C-alpha cells in the first residue's frame, strides 16, 4: 500500500464514526481535520471533496458491518441458524462490534433520501445487496428443505430487514432496549415459522 493509499485509509477510518454519527451535513471540515490531525490541504490532497470522503466512509462502515455479520453467519450450519443469528447479533447493535453510530445503511438512507443523490445511490445499492443476501440464504434453505416451499424469499427478506432497521430506529429514538428485545424476539418467531 502506497503512502497516499495509507493516508486515504487513515482519513476514512478516523472519520467513519463521525460521519456515521453526525451524518453528511453534520460533519464539518473542522471535524475531519480534528479527527485526523491533518490540514485542509492534507484532506483535499487525498479526496476531491466531502462527497468523495462520505462515500468512501459509507463503504468502509458497510464493509465492516458485512464482515462482522458474515463471520457470525459462517459459524452456523443450517440456513435457519444463519438467519436466526441476525436477531441475536442485532440485540447487541449498541455494542462494540457494530460501527459507531449504528447502521450505516439506515443513517445514510434517511439523511440522503431527499438531499444527496450520490449518497442515496450508495445506500440504495448496499440495501439491495443486503436484500439479495437474505434472498440467497432463504432460497438455499428452501432447497435444503428447511423452509416451506411456498414462502416468497424477497418478501421474507424485506420483513427481516424492516424489523431489524425498525427496531434499531425505535430503540435509538426512545432509548428503550426492551423494544429491541421484543422486536428481535418477534423476528426469531417469524424466522422459525418459515
Q: Please work out how many helical segments DSSP would assign.
A: 9
The CA-CA distance between the termini, in Å, is: 46 Å
Unreliably modeled segments? none
CATH architectural label: Orthogonal Bundle
- SSE pattern, N- to C-terminal: HHHHHHHHH
Spatial shape? elongated
- How many structural domains does the protein architecture include? 1
In percent, how helical is the residue content?
Answer: over 70%
Q: What is the number of beta strands?
A: 0
Structural class, by secondary structure, is: mainly alpha
The CATH topology annotation reads as Tetracycline Repressor, domain 2
The share of residues in extended strands comes to under 5%
Under CATH, the homologous superfamily reads Tetracycline Repressor, domain 2
Computed over alpha carbons, the radius of gyration is: 18 Å
Overall pLDDT level: 90
Q: Could you describe the largest sheet, including whether it forms a barrel? A: none
Write structural notes for this entry:
The structure is a single chain. The chain has nine helices and no strands. It is an all-alpha fold and 194 residues long. It has a single domain (3-192), classed as Orthogonal Bundle (Tetracycline Repressor, domain 2), CATH 1.10.357. The longest helix is centred in the last third of the chain and has 27 residues, at 117-143. The chain is elongated and about 60 Å long. The protein starts with a helix and ends with a helix.
Amino acid at each position: 500500500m502506497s503512502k497516499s493509499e495509507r493516508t486515504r485509509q487513515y482519513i476514512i477510518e478516523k472519520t467513519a464514526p463521525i460521519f456515521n454519527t453526525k451524518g453528511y451535513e453534520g460533519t464539518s471540515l473542522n471535524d475531519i481535520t480534528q479527527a485526523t490531525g491533518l490540514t485542509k490541504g492534507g484532506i483535499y490532497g487525498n479526496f476531491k471533496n466531502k462527497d468523495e470522503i462520505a462515500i468512501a466512509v459509507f463503504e468502509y462502515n458497510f464493509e465492516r458491518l458485512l464482515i462482522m455479520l458474515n463471520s457470525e453467519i459462517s459459524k452456523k450450519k443450517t440456513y435457519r441458524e444463519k438467519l436466526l443469528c441476525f436477531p441475536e447479533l442485532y440485540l447487541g447493535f449498541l455494542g462494540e462490534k457494530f460501527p459507531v453510530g449504528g447502521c450505516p445503511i439506515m443513517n445514510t438512507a434517511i439523511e440522503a433520501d431527499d438531499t444527496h443523490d450520490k449518497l442515496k445511490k450508495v445506500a440504495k445499492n448496499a440495501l439491495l445487496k443486503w436484500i439479495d443476501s437474505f434472498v440467497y440464504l432463504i432460497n438455499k434453505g428452501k432447497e435444503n428443505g428447511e423452509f416451506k416451499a411456498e414462502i416468497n424469499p424477497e418478501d421474507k427478506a424485506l420483513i427481516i430487514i424492516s424489523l431489524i432497521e425498525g427496531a434499531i430506529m425505535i430503540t435509538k429514538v426512545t432509548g428503550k432496549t426492551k423494544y429491541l428485545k421484543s422486536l428481535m424476539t418477534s423476528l426469531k418467531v417469524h424466522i422459525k415459522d418459515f
